[in-house]
Amino acid sequence: MKTFVRSLAVLLLTLIFCATSQAQLSQEELAKIAQDPLANLISAPLQNQTNFGIGPLNRTQHETKFQPVIPFADGKIIARVVVPFYDQPDLFAENGSTKGFGDVSLSAFYATKGDKVSWGVGPIISLPTAKDGLGVQEWALGPSFVAVTKTGNWVIGGLFQQVWSMESDALNGFKFQPFINYNLPKGNYLTTSPSITANWNGTDGEKWTVPLGMGVGKLIKPENFLPVNLQVGAYYNVEKPEYTGADWSLRLSATFMIPMAFFKK
Q1: DSSP 8-state secondary structure symbol assigned to residue 56
Q2: Helix (H, G, I), strand (E, B), or coil: what is residue 62?
Q3: SS3 content of the chain, % helix, strand, coil (to 5)
Q4: Under a CB-based contact definition with an 8 Å cutoff, are residues 211 and 196 in contact?
Q5: Please, how many CA atoms are within 13 Å of residue 117, restricted to the half-sphere of its CB?
Q6: Phi and psi (nearest 5°) for 73?
Q7: pTM
Q8: Pick from 192, 163, 168, 194: which is nearest to 180 by CA?
């Protein structure tokens, strides 16, 4: 874990201090771009989600995700990698946990961008990279779809994914993540983006995880520095599996934004 964190820090610092110039966009404009999953820019999000009240002993889980997004072909292809790292507690003991990487996922969208609505469709692939107990450890494949619209101060959209294991019946999962952002002056905004998931292999009452909540964000734009999108939010699970679902979650994230124009100079 220490090696991973050091390598990630070196990568981010290198990108940050290489950015000696950037497009002259306002904080408000940059905030809307940061909220658009189909935007034509490289982004390097780092998100930590702390899940409270898991299992009969109310244990706490930590989930850290590095989620770089890279556009190709002038933004017509949007590729995303999700690298999760878990600190997974022993649900039936007061102490002890397992730490390690989960299954890495790769997705790519072919993006169609319109004046009012933009959307993208493509595959998602899950790689068997997880440590024992931290993932399915099987190749998985499925479709992914995302749509977004921008109207005034609003940026609204949703992400849909369905993944099936290619090796067994161990994974049959669905994800829907709506996002609603209302932008305020000086790069501030209100946001909600609950990650609603379903395990179709689960028994009745154990299939769905449905969180409700919201957060706040701010786009900061230091001089001669990469724009950074900061966000904090809290979500309460109104529906969850009895033993593996959390009562509520605290989500923190920082996203470094790298305009494609920087690489054309």
Answers
A1: T
A2: strand
A3: 10, 55, 35
A4: yes
A5: 6
A6: 55, 50
A7: 0.88
A8: 192
Check residue 137 and give left, alpha or beta (phi > 0: left; psi -120 to 50: alpha).
left
C-alpha to C-alpha distance for 201 and 176, rounded to whole angstroms: 17
Neighbours of 251 (CB within 10 A): 21
Buried b (16+ CB within 10 A) or exposed e, 59-91: bebebbbbbbbbbeeeeeebebebbbbbbbbee
Element (H, E) at 13: helix 2-18
pLDDT, one tens digit per residue, over 242-259 is 888 999 999 999 999 886
Q: Are 199 and 206 in contact, with CB atoms under 8 Å apart? A: yes
Position of tokens 């110039």? 21
8 Å CB contact between 215 and 233: yes
Look at residue 263 in the predicted model and tell me its pLDDT.
47
- Return the residue matching tokens 């009240």: 53
Tokens standing for residue 54? 């898991």
What is the rounded distance in angstroms from the CA atom of residue 201 to the CA atom of residue 96?
A: 28
How far apart (Å, rounded) are the C-alpha atoms in residues 9 and 93? 34
Summarize the confidence of residues 189-218 as an average pLDDT: 95
Token pair 């179709």: residue: 200
